[in-house]
């Protein structure tokens, strides 16, 4: 049987508008439109009062100022009530001394989780996996990262990726594996044979016509 619109599940796609939402959070009502003009990292966790999720939330909280310095907001989500979120955040502060400064979405209906593909039937039908979405200031989904329920994420990697995305946007370049600020960036390869012939003489640090780097402050 051929798939139809009803049988093919919707899922978020890179470089397309992020799914819209209007929802209740621990900081009051929030919608995707509230984050217009800023970067947003929307991330889900399987459940409140679980140990791996607690470590992740503390790491996000400790890095909150670094994300803010990059003009990026954080927004958590799990399929729990606002009361559970509030109680869990208070428990983290009381037991670990870490205050959770960002909102957490109440998603008992699983509406947001389903719209963003956070529910993975191979893992659970009732809990969100560790999904992370990078949404740019125009509301476009720029990166998606999925982790299994059993293993925590690297918040340092999300800071690195956010910086790389912003660097690429600002300079029209790509970044190599594990790129960090101050390191050389990759110049987009030429798209014509004539461009390839000229590339080696354009002043970049080239290994071959398709693989050239430069410093960001270089012409």
Short summary:
The chain is an alpha+beta fold and 219 residues long. The protein has six helices and ten strands, in the order βββααβαβαββαβαββ. The strands form three sheets. The protein has a five-stranded mixed β-sheet. A three-stranded antiparallel β-sheet has the order 8-10-9, with no helix packed on it.
> Could you state the oligomeric state of the chains shown?
single chain
Average predicted local confidence, pLDDT: 90
**Overall number of domains:** 2
Major beta sheet, strand line-up: 5-4-3-6-7
Beta-strand portion reads 15-25%
Helix content: 25-40%
How many strand elements? 10
What structural class should be given to the helix and strand makeup? alpha+beta
Enumerate how many helices there are, as a single number: 6
Series of H and E elements? EEEHHEHEHEEHEHEE
Tell me the major beta sheet. Answer: 5 strands, mixed
CATH class of the largest domain: Alpha Beta
- Looking at CATH, which topology of the largest domain would you report? Glutaredoxin
In CATH terms, the superfamily of the largest domain is Glutaredoxin
CATH structural architecture of the largest domain = 3-Layer(aba) Sandwich
Alpha-carbon distance between the two ends = 56 Å
Rg over alpha carbons? 20 Å
Unreliable spans are 1-9
The coarse overall form would be: elongated
Overview of the structural elements:
- The chain contains 6 helices and 10 strands.
- It has helices spanning 51-62, 64-69, 82-96, 111-115, 155-171, 193-199, and strands at residues 22-23, 30-31, 39-44, 72-78, 104-106, 130-135, 141-147, 185-187, 205-208, 211-214.
- By secondary structure, it is an alpha+beta fold.
- The strands form 3 sheets. Strands 5-4-3-6-7 form a 5-stranded mixed β-sheet. Strands 8-10-9 form a 3-stranded antiparallel β-sheet, with no helix packed on it. The protein has a two-stranded antiparallel ribbon with strand order 1-2.
- Strand 6 (130-135) and strand 7 form a beta hairpin.
- The radius of gyration is 20 Å and the shape is elongated.
- The chain folds into 2 domains: 22-152, Glutaredoxin, CATH 3.40.30; 172-219, Antioxidant, Horf6, Chain A, domain 2.
- The longest helix is centred in the last third of the chain and has 17 residues, at 155-171.
- Mean pLDDT is 90; it is low at 1-9.
